[in-house]
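Give me structure tokens for this 142-residue protein.
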Amino acid sequence: MRVTGAVVVIAVLDGGSGADLARRFTAAGAVGVLIADQREGVAEDLATELDRPGCPVVGVCGDIRRPSDVAALVDTAEKHLGPIDLFCVAGPDGERIVSLAELPDHLDLERLAELLALVGEAIGEVVVPQQRRPVENAAAVV
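Here you go.
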């Protein structure tokens, strides 16, 4: 997986932590990182700590179990950092990294639906079954 020059989105689920993942990506040469955490202020504080010239870090509050939040993350990342290369999910049982190399630079609704499917798979891989919550408003995206 190529990290140098990549724009990375890290979405943190309940019980997960994006701090180590964000540190690894910034150290490995990412050119921008967006961190999203469900807990108010957590991602913003981490972004302030890690932000540096050559690798801006943006922190936002969001829940990737909501398609509208995923759409907002994509918009925010593209607006502030450029097209997303890697989308990561950090959960209580690990992390999953999804490469968006196959998707176009700009995500239209069809490609956003594909991203949501990949994110859903990633969530399934990092959250044990009893901790999973259903995705809300899934029909709102398609």
